[in-house]
Specification:
The chain is built from no helices and 11 strands. It is mainly beta and about 120 residues long. The strands form 2 sheets. Strands 2, 4, 5, 6, 9, 10 and 11 form a 7-stranded mixed sheet that branches. A 4-stranded antiparallel sheet has the order 1-3-8-7, with no helix packed on it. The protein starts with a strand and ends with a strand. About 35% of the residues are buried.
Length: about 120
């Protein structure tokens, strides 16, 4: 089992940047593929990005491709989401999640979740 804690959210103007972190404890994070998801008010949770256990493979939602970068440091048991060129529509609670298998874009495939961190982008 793994515990996840997100940090790095906040308020930023459109066009700005933020870097989210997700610290994992418990079983080593290198055993898990990791994903970032987000949920805006009144909307369903949606996939943002995912990364393989080794960090060699990544996949992004079309809405963030070219602006967001997912990475991981297995020595630090931490996954990151670098968010650039932020838009007001990126405003949401961002969650990291872990699964003991290949990466996946389906949130139902992730058994472990963090508590979320709020990202607000002002226009």
């Amino acid at each position: 089992q793994v515990q996840l804690v997100e940090s790095g959210g906040g308020l930023v103007q459109a066009g700005g940047s933020l870097r989210l972190s997700c610290a994992a404890s418990g079983r080593t994070s290198s055993s898990y593929s990791m994903g970032w998801f987000r949920q805006a008010p009144g909307k369903e949770r949606e996939f943002v990005a995912t990364i393989s256990r080794s960090g060699e493979s990544t996949y992004y939602a079309d809405s963030v491709k070219g602006r967001f970068t997912i990475s991981r440091d297995n020595a630090k048991n931490t996954v990151y989401l670098q968010m650039n060129s932020l838009k007001p529509e990126d405003t949401a609670v961002y969650y990291c999640a872990a699964r003991p298998g290949p990466f996946n874009i389906d949130s139902d495939e992730y058994p472990y979740w963090g508590q979320g961190t709020q990202v607000t982008v002002s226009s």
